[in-house]
Amino acid sequence: MPSAESPGSSPNPHGRRPPLLSRVSLRNFRSIEVCDVALGPLTFLVGPNGSGKSNFLDALRLITDALRTSLDQALRTRGGAALIVRRGLSGASQFEIRLDFSLSDGTDGHYSICIAIPEIGDHVVQEEECVVGRARYHVREGRILVPPGPVSPPAADDRLYLVNASGLPEFRPIFDALSSMGFYNLNPDQLRTAQPADKGDFLLRDGSNLPSVLERLEKRDGDGKKRVEEYLGAIVPGLSSVGHKRLEHLETLQFRQRISEGLDLYEPFPAISMSDGTLRALGILVALFQTRAEPRIQLVGIEEPEVALHPAAAGVLRDALREASQYAQIIVTSHSPELLDDSSIQAGEVLSVASEQGRSIIAPVDAETRSALKDRLYTAGELLKANQLAPDRQTIPAPNELKFWELGTK
To answer: What phi-psi label fits residue 198: left (phi over 0), alpha (psi between -120 and 50 degrees) or beta?
Structure first.
C-alpha cells in the first residue's frame, strides 16, 4: 500500500510487464568471484558501501554499453578488460556473464559471454552464446560453431556477435531489450545546467538530457508526467509542476512552487535554484516513469536513490519504485534502512551483498531472515539496522558449478 504521504496508486492498464532478466550469473567480474541470483520485478541489492553492489549493476551495464557502442569502447571506459577481471587466488584471466531472460511475448532464452585477456591485445571474445526460443548461436574466438541460420553474419573475435545477429529477426528482440536497459547514477550539477536539445528517447546515465526526456514523456504519456509531478510534490511540499523550458538552442528545467502557505500562489523557479535532493528525486522519478512512454526500456537500475533525500521521503520513493515495477524491471542498490522499512518488501525482493577480504558475496537473505520477513516480525529495514540482513551462503555455488554454456563443448 502507498504510504500516507504518497500519491495514490496508478495501476498499469495493460497489466504488469514480466521481468526481463530472470537470472544473472557472474564469474570473476571485478570483486565478484561467483554470483548466481534470481531477479523479480523489483529487486533491492542491499549492503554497505564498497561491498560490490555497483559491480553487479556494472556487469549488466557493460552488456548494454557494448551493444549500444562497441565492446572495445565499453571496456576502455572501464580501464580495459584487465581491470575488470577479478585477480584472486585463482589467477583468472577472463570474466563471464550469463543473463537468463524472458521476452514480452513469453519467449525464454539466455545470453552468455566470456571475455578473456590475450597475450597480445586488450581483449578477445572467447565465447559467446545466445538462445532465443528455438533460435541459437555459439561463437568461439571469431569462429561460428553453431550458426544462427542458413546464412550467418560474419564474426570477429573482438566484437559481440549479437550486434551482427540483430539483423536476423529472431535475435532482434533480445538485442533491443539488452541494449535499451537504463542504469543511473544521477548528478544534480548536470541537472542544473542547461543542455543542448536531445531526442529524449532514453535518459542518460547522469541525467543530463532530463529536460528533453521530460518533454517527450509529457507528449507521449501525459499521465506518466503527472505521476512524476505527484510523487515529486509528495517529496517536496508545495511543488506543483516541473516542465521543459527552451533557452535559445539549449534546454533546462523550470519548477512551479507555492510561495505562500495556505494561498494558491505559485512562482516559477529555475533548476539552478533547486536543491540536490529535489533534482535527484526528479531524475529518479523520470528514470522510472520514462518506461511508460518508451517500451524498449524493460529494465532500470538505480544506484542509491535515497542519497540527498530526507529520510521522511523514503516511503514516497519506495512507492514510486513499486509502481514503476509494473512497467519495467527495477533493480536498486541501497544501504538505507528507511527505504527498506516497510512490511510490503518481501524476502524474495532483497539480495544481500557483503564483502569478505575483497570478495563480494551476493545472495538471497538467509532462512532465518526469510522467516522473519514472511511472518512480518521485522521489516527489512529493521533487520538492516540490526545488521541481520545476511546472505544465505548455502545458495552460493562453487565457481566451477556455474553453467554458462549449453551449445558449445566448453
So the answer is: beta
With H, G, I as helix, E, B as strand and everything else as coil, classify residue 43.
strand
CATH code for the domain in which residue 89 is found: 3.40.50.300
**Cell reading at 223:** 499521465
State the residue for C-alpha cell 549479437: 162
pLDDT digits (tens, 9 = 90+) for 64-117: 999 999 999 999 999 999 999 987 555 679 999 999 999 999 999 999 999 999
Residue of 266, 272, 213 lying closest to 244 (CA atoms)? 213
Look at residues 249, 267, 293 and tell me which one is the last residue of a structural domain: 293
User: What is each CA distance from 366 to 54, 214, 342, 350, 388, in whole angstroms?
Assistant: 22, 41, 19, 11, 9
Q: Which residue has the cell 558475496?
A: 361
- The length of the chain in residues reads 410
Do the beta carbons of residue 334 and residue 29 sit within 8 Å? no
249, 264, 293: which is the final residue of a domain?
293
Same domain as 322, residue 256: no
Which residue carries 568471484 as its cell? 33
**Could you tell me the CA-to-CA distances from 218 to 56, 93, 200, 393 in Å, in that order?**
33, 48, 11, 46
Got the DSSP string for 98-134? EEEEE-TTS-EEEEEEEEE--SSSS-EEEEEEEEETT
Q: Cell match 565478484: residue? A: 32
| d(C-alpha 244, C-alpha 375), whole Å | 46
